[in-house]
Design a protein that fits this description.
Strand order of the largest sheet: 3-2-1-9
Distance between the termini: 32 Å
Radius of gyration: 16 Å
Shape: globular
Largest sheet: 4 strands, parallel
Order of helices and strands: HEHEHEHEHEEHEHEHEHHH
Structural class: alpha/beta
Strand content: 15-25%
Number of strands: 9
């Protein structure tokens, strides 16, 4: 799998924070039942690596990756846990080198034109745009597409179901990252049926984006 394959898996890349690794498998299965075949488990909790390990082992039809990768040790640990891809919120030389050394597809984070240009110089043309809404939203990404049309993005941060089509309609956006597929209250209640429903709704956003303005 390469970055293009990853970005084509779903119009919405679920960004998931789990505090209990026991929820990893039912959450992944609910997303899959809703038509979403990918999950980004963020390394913000102690349960994250175990959650990645469980999904990789028990839900092979879901492509599981590690998000919020901010240190070289996290990149290596995520690979060892079975992550199929890495996502970083921003990029330093040390982190980028360690991520590349894992051999996994990487979506390095950028929020400015200069950062995007720097990553392009390193050979990356598929990037994460974060924090999307705080960095100018769809209008900013549209403007970036002028001088840098070769780059494609997965914007993440503050995006809602209502706002997602504006991003997906842009030629330089391949998918969006969203935490709304696994809301905190649904996870707390173990309401996996709701997560499945939200995934079903998200899986149609790509086809609807062409009508967004």
């Amino acid at each position: 799998m390469n970055a293009d394959d990853l970005l084509a898996l779903s119009p919405v890349l679920p960004v998931v924070v789990l505090h209990d690794a026991n929820q990893a498998v039912p959450t992944a299965r609910a997303l899959l039942a809703g038509g979403v075949r990918v999950i980004e488990l963020t390394l913000r909790t102690d349960a994250a690596l175990d959650a990645i390990r469980r999904v990789a082992s028990e839900v092979p039809d879901v492509v599981v990756g590690a998000g919020t990768v901010v240190t070289p040790d996290q990149a290596r640990a995520a690979k060892d846990a079975g992550a199929a891809f890495l996502v970083t919120p921003g990029t330093t030389d040390t982190l980028l080198s360690a991520a590349v050394d894992t051999g996994l597809p990487v979506l390095p984070g950028a929020s400015t034109v200069s950062e995007a240009m720097r990553l392009a110089e390193h050979g990356f043309d598929r990037l994460k745009f974060f924090p999307a809404e705080a960095s100018g939203g769809a209008a900013a990404l549209s403007a970036i597409g002028g001088p840098l049309p070769q780059l494609r993005f997965c914007p993440t941060g503050g995006i809602t179901p209502a706002g997602a089509p504006r991003y997906l309609a842009l030629p330089n956006v391949a998918c969006v990252g969203g935490s709304w597929l696994t809301p905190k209250d649904a996870l707390a209640a173990r309401d996996y049926a709701r997560i499945e429903t939200l995934a079903k709704e998200a899986s149609t956003l790509g086809s609807e984006a062409t009508t967004a303005t």
